[in-house]
């Protein structure tokens, strides 16, 4: 009996040392101490012992049961502890691990340029106004001194909605809208989209952006216009920037000029952007035609004014050496992401 018990204990000890899960431990407990277990079998076998032997044997088996129960419990708590440690390890949060950054957007180069120009001109006392992109022929052409059948209409391939309504071909109609709605002194800029039925190429798009400027007051001269535009060019491109005024014609200004800046893309050598000239035409300007002042209810014997219209795409392309205007509209994230 003693030997048998020792054997069972030995078996338990061996199996405990290689037991690695709670399930295995439970199976082991059943195998040794369960109803059909080996120790229980011994207990049953006591019937074959003589009455004198029984108490000692019973005592021995009970002692063994206690001892083995204790061994099982010890193993159980050891396994529990291991399991807890594993769980803690599994659930550890590494606070030093870099987290995936949310994709950050960036401002479009045209927005950057527009904001920069707005900053520049509001700094000089201009106020920002906005107007409709679907515009009356009356404002887009008539009040800008471009009557029906005027050849200047051909130069601006117009999208007509009907006989009287167009997609504005320039931001100039805001000159008329402003003069009709307020009295001088007037100092406004109007940034926005404009439309022309142009073929798409490296420097043309049917939708593009302009910023109109208008100053009307007593004693406004061409020198004020030049001074304002020089300040603008310097602010945008730094001191010493080369500008070129060329005499030009616009029906709404007299005299008129076109202002060029050195092409930043090729530094004057000539490239696709500047069509080989080394210059980029960025704006048209002039003294507001007295006829326009009068049509807009302003006494041209008392007031004078200057106006300008800046092409924002050209400025953006200059500023960021963008070789093809189409890049501005394609929405390619590899391109846009560079302006972050
Ligand atoms: N509206 C002209 C255009 O789209 C640009 C322009 C030229 C605007 C001269 C002006 C200006 O205000 O004075 O081509």
Question: What descriptive keywords fit this protein?
Answer:
single chain; 340 residues; alpha+beta; BirA Bifunctional Protein, domain 2; 2 domains; 7-stranded mixed sheet; 19% strand; binds 3,4-dihydroxyphenylalanine
What is the percentage of strand-forming residues? 15-25%
- Which CATH architecture of the largest domain is right? 2-Layer Sandwich
- In terms of quaternary structure, the protein is single chain
Order of helices and strands: HHHHHEEHHEHEEHEEEHEHH
Which fold name corresponds to the CATH topology of the largest domain? Answer: BirA Bifunctional Protein, domain 2
Q: Name the CATH class of the largest domain.
A: Alpha Beta
Helix percent band: 40-55%
**Domain count:** 2
Q: Per the principal axes of the C-alpha atoms, what is the gross shape? A: rod-shaped
Structural class: alpha+beta
What are the bound molecules? 3,4-dihydroxyphenylalanine
- Radius of gyration (Å): 45 Å
| Amino-to-carboxy terminus distance | 86 Å
